[in-house]
Amino acid sequence: PPTIIHPLWIEGKVKHEQLTVLYPKEYHLPELFSIDGLTIKAFNTDHFLGWHNVHISFLVEFENKRIYISGDSHYRKENLDQIRGVDLYIHSLLKEDIVKGRMNKEYAKHFHICEIIDLVREIEPAKLMINHLVDCDWAIDPSVLKGYLRENEISNAIVPVSDTEIFDL
Questions:
Q1: DSSP class of residue 47?
Q2: Are 22 and 69 within 8 A, CB to CB?
Q3: Among residues 79, 77, 114, which one has the least CA distance to residue 95?
Q4: d(Cα 119, Cα 75) in Å, to the nearest integer?
Q5: How many CB atoms sit inside 10 A of residue 71's CB?
Q6: pTM for the structure as a whole
Q7: Does pLDDT of 2 surpass 70?
Q8: In terms of DSSP bridges, do strands 65-69 and 55-62 run parallel, antiparallel, or are they unpaired?
Q9: Residue (of 22, 24, 19) closest to 33 by Cα position
Q10: Nearest-CA neighbor of 34 among 20, 51, 45, 46?
Q11: What's the pLDDT score for residue 65?
Q12: Percent of the chain scored above 70 by pLDDT?
């Protein structure tokens, strides 16, 4: 998306010819990009703060693997058939009241566990990776959430507790 590309370009981390802006032209249809057996579908999705039509999520398909990256939003119901059963769903646990400190973190774990159960039930991912938890003082502690998932017998959720962890599909 343009909001990610621009800072990378300005800071000199990538050259202009290395960039491809992928943003859906039509609200309800994903934009496709393919190169060397890799396909990316960019979907319009609403930001967790309610910003309508400014955010995108990605479905990456490569070598019979499908990975959905929600970013700071969720999926749209009309795209459910395209993402159901993905190998990995990378999901940001974001709720405005939690991020802005209006919800106690101890209560937040209950909200998050319900959100995770709903995602597992609706999306049916082989693995669900919970994102936006490591080193974020406004988020629930990842080790607390990991224990809570274990208590609730949710075995296909991955919760990184360190930014050095590596997971295989």
A1: B
A2: no
A3: 114
A4: 10
A5: 20
A6: 0.83
A7: no
A8: antiparallel
A9: 22
A10: 20
A11: 96
A12: 92
